[in-house]
Amino acid sequence: MARHIGLLLLVLGIITPAFARRINETPYEFRYEARISAGLSIEIKGVNGDLVVEESEGSEVEVVARKSGEFDDPSEVRMSVVEHDRGATICAVYPSGSKDAAGFCSEASAEAATPGGNDVKVDFLVRVPRGVRFVGRTANGKVQAHRVSGGVEAHTVNGNIEIEGSGPAHATSINGSIHATMRTGRQQESQLQTVNGNLTLTLASLDPARLFANTTNGGIDMKFPVSETVEESAHHLVAQLGGVPNMCQPEIRMRTVNGDIRLEYQR
Q1: Does residue 213 contact residue 261 with C-beta atoms inside 8 Å?
Q2: How confident is the model at residue 96 (pLDDT cuts 50, 70, 90)?
Q3: 111, 129, 147 - which closes a domain
Q4: Is the pLDDT of residue 117 over 90?
């Protein structure tokens, strides 16, 4: 019987990620450390506060969340952790939130906690090992990702987004500008989109890629060479980057309503 149980645990260990985790939470700070394999993701869902992520040289994901409030008690905002087969999701849960923590703090939900007038800020610092994907959501705050190789997905309502990495980038904002520094040459699509803000794309390589850029009330300023201009107008550009197109080349899509688009090449 014990042998059968041991075999079952071994199989479960193969098909689901093993989280050798450490969690510590005080009224003003939360810390989470876990071993998450390359190809999986760490997702942060905040509402008031900044998200900063950087690639680490270690093998574990490290999350530090610092809570502060001018009128409301930071200890009333707790952190919820949901671990799933594609990584882990961490949410800031406010006391006025009407939804179940495990419900919106899951990989399947794109929602964040509801502050309900609570002024507590939760600022996150996240360190990810090489190859781990970062997903970050906040309503009122900026998102900054530095040298992340596993790919970045960032969403904010009121705040700017800065992404630097070699993996695909997906970024959306309502009232904020987006600046992405990246390399092409991967098959995955990258997308930068905002309503009220500028978009800046800095390419660190000119491997084959197809670029789509659109602005409703703004201009397009291109500072890097293209091998072919497919379509071009004052507010619209479709161009081939990096020579002859191929079946594996990625697409880069950029769109803003009220803002300019700037395209740069980092030599």
Answers
A1: yes
A2: low
A3: 129
A4: no
